[in-house]
Amino acid sequence: MNAIQWVLTRTYTFIALALGAVAIYIIGYDTSKLMTYFLLPFYLVCLLMQFALPKIKAPLEKGELTTDLISNTVTITTVNALQNMVLGIMFAWGSSSLLIHFNIIDESFGLANLPIWAQALCAFLIADFFFYVTHRMAHEVPFFWKFHSIHHSAHRVTFMNAYRVHPVDAMFRRYVPLFFVTLSGVSIEALSLVIVFSTILATVTHMNVDLRHGWFNYIIATNELHRWHHSKKYSEAKNFALFTLWDHLFGTYYWPRDRDIPEETGLGDETNYPLHNYWQLLLIPFRWNKLDAKDTTKKTQQDTGRISTNEEPNQSSQIT
Ligand SMILES: [Zn+2]
Ligand SMILES: [Zn+2]
Prior knowledge:
single chain, mainly alpha, 12 helices, 0% strand, globular, binds zinc ion
């Protein structure tokens, strides 16, 4: 590894966050302009980084790229668009808070009264707590796992499969946290800060590049931690939040210092699972019982996977 690569892999995330701050300073809090002039070029750089410095150099599997491309397109055009529309309506009312809008609480209680950095921090903590809750539910409640299993069906963690998600799963894990943030009454400027910095971190989280973050791994679930979340082994598939505070608090933080990546990434049991066919993946939750997958959630097999076709929602003891 040459010196430039060594420095780049240890500074990439921090440079991206710093550039995000510069972009907000120059462009302002307009999220659509920030998307066009900062986040889209950032995505492109991430893609080029992965192409130039892939950590896991496996050839693409049959149908993998097509599945990811369709999934990314659907997520961006439906889930993101619906989210932007709802947020647009709320701010057109003059406040992000439903509670204030419907006179349930007085405007003086809204977080918009705090300095912007404090609003953004509160909004990030609120959003990420509910992201932790919904993400953990997606793993431990069979109904939600039927949808979320699609995100875990890829055999490696890359920038391209960050949006390999069922739209129902994406809406559940995105809209519930946003709903609770909007109850708090943060300003549109603070929400823009949260969206930009969360997007940077969530993108880094799935990058197939050997980035090294050191102490930062104790605070944010970087790609070093998130690879473990995608492990085939149930006991390693932890790290549910973006802000690791919640994983530390609830005993689901996992970072084995003596190992670099999980032995295997993906679903524990892929029997009859259509790995790289987007339209069949969309139907999986509705065809679950016909998958005839092995029941791998029993405690005797708790390290072998997470597909369950007939298990009741009682898996929390295995994951904490
Ligand atoms: Zn997950
Ligand atoms: Zn992931």
